[in-house]
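ok, trying the design again with the full structure, not the truncated one.
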């Protein structure tokens, strides 16, 4: 039974439909939690959570699926969860005070349970996102709040979305080995299939000034290059097996840099030959989800494995690392350069924490990220600078947000 069918059964049960299996409806709450929740995500998501009250468990469930038509089951499940996974401080973050004040503006995406992620804002102000589990490409006008969702080609399950110079949204088909875009005039999809069957999971992408689309393929251990003018796709494999290329950014010369989520390395890509240069980072447990590049071409990365912020100087090959405020187990994830600072999140903490590293003083300030209705559930997997501030998401609650700041 595949996950799409599982989710259909979950929906039928929670909506109280006549087709809900009696064998499931007669189970104890613990068995229902195991069966219903694990149909969409790992039970570790519950066991490792900071915990909630009964009311907040109901709120979190409501972000995933509409439970309003089956109040009795909702009561039983939320009561069980609150009794067994109550509020605790085992994942509490450490906050560093400072002078910067943040403002958050939230938007709730229409389709529940889609795991909204990787929003990006175009110069025209429009924000695009993908709902990976819902197989959705979404469009938000932040001025009006209007949203529109497009169903991606079957089996796509896009991991990210990027914009070309024409503001066209390109998606990366993480489950069917494709990349493609939405033609804004016709609202039809153009899809490119990977030329190698081993290239299964396009992950994150970025366009250079020439219009070339560079992208990573994490578990395939590859980096790709697509020329939209010729439809030609070239792929190269990383030198170290299991490196799991993840984030990708361009320096001021248009050279792609890639972070390794499975090994202690960064990768520099020759933009002409696609020759790869591997830079080894200190620490066998080091792995880097994403990276950011400053205007002076310093390569910053989050050391997710060791809870550090790192910097690689391409001119001197010097590597410098700073401890995260919440420590080794904070799992920094997303990262971005903005306003002479490096911003990143501590994804393993609850409430999830946003950290600002001031480049001039090399000091940090951090904030616990507020969530609507008291449900401190993350996590931010990607952040990018928009027209006015950072554009982020929280996958569990299916929310997009804009963060602005002032002194």
């Amino acid at each position: 039974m595949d996950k799409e069918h599982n989710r259909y059964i979950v929906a039928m049960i929670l909506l109280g439909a006549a087709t809900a299996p009696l064998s499931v409806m007669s189970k104890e709450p613990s068995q229902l939690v195991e069966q219903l929740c694990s149909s969409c995500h790992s039970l570790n998501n519950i066991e490792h959570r900071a915990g909630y009250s009964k009311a907040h468990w109901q709120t979190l469930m409501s972000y995933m699926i509409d439970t309003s038509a089956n109040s009795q089951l909702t009561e039983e499940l939320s009561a069980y969860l609150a009794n067994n996974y109550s509020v605790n401080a085992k994942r509490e973050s450490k906050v560093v005070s400072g002078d910067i004040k943040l403002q958050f503006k939230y938007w709730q995406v229409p389709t529940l349970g889609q795991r909204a992620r990787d929003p990006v804002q175009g110069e025209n102000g429009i924000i695009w996102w993908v709902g990976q589990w819902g197989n959705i490409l979404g469009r938000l006008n932040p001025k009006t709040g209007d949203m529109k969702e497009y169903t991606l080609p079957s089996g796509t399950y896009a991991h990210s979305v990027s914009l070309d110079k024409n503001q066209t949204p390109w998606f990366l088909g993480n489950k069917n080995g494709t990349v493609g875009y939405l033609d804004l005039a016709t609202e039809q999809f153009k899809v490119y299939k990977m030329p190698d069957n081993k290239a299964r999971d396009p992950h994150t992408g970025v366009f250079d000034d020439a219009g070339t689309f560079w992208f990573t393929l994490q578990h395939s251990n590859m980096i790709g290059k697509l020329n939209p003018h010729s439809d030609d796709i070239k792929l190269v494999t990383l030198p170290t097996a299991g490196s799991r290329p993840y984030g990708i950014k361009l320096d001021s010369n248009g050279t792609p840099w890639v972070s390794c989520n499975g090994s202690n390395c960064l990768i520099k890509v020759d933009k002409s030959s696609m020759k790869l240069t591997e830079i080894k980072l200190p620490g066998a447990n080091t792995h880097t989800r994403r990276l950011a590049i400053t205007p002076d071409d310093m390569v910053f990365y989050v050391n997710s494995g060791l809870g550090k912020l790192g910097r690689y100087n391409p001119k001197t090959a010097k590597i410098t690392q700073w401890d995260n405020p919440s420590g080794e187990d904070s799992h920094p994830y997303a990262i971005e350069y903005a306003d002479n600072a490096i911003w990143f999140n501590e994804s393993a903490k609850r409430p999830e924490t946003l950290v600002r590293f001031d480049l001039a003083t090399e000091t940090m300030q951090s904030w616990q990220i507020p969530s609507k209705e008291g449900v401190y559930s993350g996590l931010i997997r990607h952040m990018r600078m928009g027209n006015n501030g950072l554009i982020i998401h929280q996958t569990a609650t299916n929310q997009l947000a804009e963060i602005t700041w002032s002194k």
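Keeping the full-length input from now on. Residues 8-25 have pLDDT under 50 and may be disordered.
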